[in-house]
Amino acid sequence: MSSLKIKNARVVLHDNDLIQTDVVIRDGKIAEMAPTLMVKTDRVIDAKGQLLMPGLVDVHVHFREPGFEYKETIKTGSQASARGGFTTVLAMPNLNSVPSTVETFKQVQALNQQDGVINIDQYAAISAGLTSEEVDDIQALADAGAVAFTNDGKGVQNAKTMRDAMRAAASVDRPLVAHVEDESLIDGGVMNLGQRSAELELPGMDPLGESSQLARDLVIAKATGVHYHVAHLSTKESVNLVRIAKQNGVNVTAEVSPHHLLLDETDIQGDNALYKMNPPLRAPQDRMAVIGGLLDGTIDMVATDHAPHAVEERIVLLWERPLVSLVLKQVSNSSTPTWFVQVWRH
User: Fold this and answer.
1) Quick count: other Cβ atoms within 10 Å of Cβ 2?
2) Are residues 18 and 123 in the same domain?
3) Which of 155, 147, 150, 152 shows the shortest CA–CA distance to 174?
4) Which of 17, 72, 222, 298 has its CA 20 to 30 A from that of 178?
5) In this predicted structure, what is the pLDDT of residue 321?
6) Same domain, yes or no, for 256 and 210?
7) Residue 121 bridge partners (DSSP)
8) Domain check: are 156 and 238 in the same one?
């Protein structure tokens, strides 16, 4: 039996009280907690007043291996996760090759186990290349260890494909995760379609591209009984749709990314591709809606959508840069919004 004592740690209790305490862990489970524990353990760590908390879980990361190692590897991505306090992440399948067969899935899974320094659960693709209208062998991929199924980075454009994928995912008791985006409504946009895109004279992405496909999916999810999870929710209409769906018994969960909570289109001061992402930064009223949805439980979690890119891919114009996710700097205590503190405590 292995044992560990962490002494002089600060711990946040369920009522938000911050206390200093010792914690004893035996065989990976918390066994005792008290202000002072005079017990002998195999190992002792003096936290010296640092905060002790459960490992964070991120359900949406893009490690770039295999296929895009010049951006990041599984080793460096998992090391960065650990440095940020994340002990489990769920990795997206937009890789080269896309894990849409048992063979390619097992190859990625083996790399995760070989090079990851934290727990990495792997998504499998819904369909080949993230764009095929033919659904993958969901049963075989689930048996191989797929945590869930998604074509993240691409919206499933065909309703029959989505229906078949939901039925298959429900049959193996795995969530189906959706990047909701109707490509016919993107229309070459490089930022949110709204007042700011008009002011900057840049083509906009209609927010209906998100909410219209989400509405379709929620109806199909109700019919199939699948656990349907919405990635990076970003519009006020989408928040309302998820809220109504939950009230009507749809098995739906949703996430929001930090950048959609902290920034909106008014932060874009010019043709600066550092602000280009998908979904794009939305209008201020959308940002307030996702904050409200997170506070009232409509949105279930914050997920980073961690997606690193090379420097040369970032220092370009909005027109030139691919749609990616923003990398946020750490928010200092002095600038942290009060609602963010409320969400953290909640």
Assistant:
1) 10
2) no
3) 147
4) 72
5) 57
6) yes
7) 90
8) yes
* Best CA proximity match to 184, nearest among 163, 155, 160, 159: 155
Angle ∠(320,323,327) on CA atoms, nearest 5: 105
Q: Report the distance separating Cα 15 and Cα 345, nearest Å.
A: 9
Eight-state DSSP code of residue 331: P
**309 inside domain:** yes
Measuring CA to CA, which residue among 281, 190, 300 is closest to residue 239?
300
Question: What are the residues facing 178 on neighbouring strands?
Answer: 230
Specify whether 102 is located in the same domain as 11.
no
- Show the domain range for 38: 3-46
Q: How far is CA 192 from CA 94, 207, 284, 333, in A?
A: 23, 7, 11, 29
> What pLDDT, on the 0 to 100 scale, is given for residue 327?
43
Assigned domain for 330 exists: yes
198 and 62 within one domain? yes
Query: Is pTM, for the whole model, over 0.85?
Result: yes
Nearest to 326 by CA among 267, 285, 283: 267
Reply yes or no on whether the pLDDT at 5 is more than 90. yes
Helix (H, G, I), strand (E, B) or coil at 69: coil
Overall number of domains in the chain? 2
- Please indicate, yes or no, if residue 51 is contained in any of the structural domains: no
Asked if residue 108 and residue 12 are part of one domain, the reply reads no
Tell me the C-alpha to C-alpha distance, in Å, between residue 254 and each of 133, 242, 262, 331: 24, 8, 17, 23
Each residue of 40-95: pLDDT tens digit?
Answer: 999 999 999 999 998 999 999 999 999 999 999 999 999 999 999 999 999 999 99
- Predicted confidence at residue 344, as pLDDT, reads 40
Annotated catalytic residues are 305
